[in-house]
UniProtKB/TrEMBL annotation:
One GO term (biological process): DNA-templated transcription
Domain LysR substrate-binding: 27-220
Any one GO MF annotation of this record: sequence-specific DNA binding
InterPro entries membership: LysR-type_TF_proteobact-type, LysR_subst-bd
Record-stated family: Belongs to the LysR transcriptional regulatory family.
UniProt-recorded name of the protein: Glycine cleavage system transcriptional activator
């Protein structure tokens, strides 16, 4: 009968083989806005997971600017000017606003001129129409009067349901336009004043799995830029 020491050595050997067979799962945690996470990031994450199946991604969404170090979060995609104190910020891309509606809005008789859009059922978000109206040559700005929502996800769902037209960021609607769920009503667009930035926690800067995620994200953004400029 084998002695206890021999059995312990066998247990260690078995555990070592299990580690070799099933490598330790790495994790990257990322905080972002709910709308960006839903409409831009989430549809692309499968490509990262296919390339790096050993790296788990923990996605946290919030409208608040979280403290990465205090919350133990590796990365954050934020909108602003890139001037968050104590954080390295990398510029990702600039966005623009455009007017969209569902293909079946008003029975498919869609408004395609600035004047017709101004006379439509406007779904208002937190975004102002003033810059778009000026770019479109409208004498009077469009002011909130109908349905007003404080979340882009709700705005886009209302548009998809045919409740009206909305002014939204291209990053949030490009996928739905490509799938035929939404229609861009006019070529008039305006730059969005806030850009997307990636902030990196000092605690995560030197971790290989974080570097791999950042490299993948930069590839996806380069592809995104090609798609929207085509």
């Amino acid at each position: 009968m084998p002695c206890k020491s021999a059995r312990r050595l066998q247990h260690i050997a078995d555990a070592t083989r299990m580690v070799q067979i099933k490598p330790r799962t790495l994790e990257v945690s990322l905080a972002t806005l709910p709308s960006f996470g839903c409409h831009w990031l989430l549809p692309r994450l499968a490509r990262f997971q296919a390339r790096h199946p050993q790296i788990a991604v923990r996605l946290l969404t919030s409208l608040a600017v979280v403290n990465l170090q205090q919350e133990g979060i590796d990365l954050a995609i934020r909108m602003g000017q890139g001037d968050w104190e104590g954080m390295e910020s990398r510029h990702l891309f600039a966005d623009e606003q455009l007017v969209v509606a569902a293909p079946g809005y008003r029975g498919g008789n869609l408004p395609t001129t600035p004047q017709a859009i101004a006379a439509s059922d406007i779904i208002f978000s937190m975004e102002s129409w003033h810059a778009w109206c000026s770019q479109a040559g409208l004498e009077k700005p469009i002011v909130p009067s109908g349905l007003r929502l404080n979340d882009s996800n709700l705005v886009l769902e209302a548009v998809r349901l045919g409740a009206g037209v909305a002014l939204e960021r291209r990053s949030l609607v490009a996928g739905a336009i490509a799938r035929g769920e939404l229609v861009q009503l006019t070529a008039v667009t305006v730059p969005y004043p806030w850009h997307y930035w990636l902030t990196v926690s000092p605690q995560a800067e030197n971790r290989p799995e974080v570097a791999r995620f950042i490299a993948w994200l930069e590839e996806e953004i380069a592809l995104w830029r090609q798609q929207i400029s085509a």
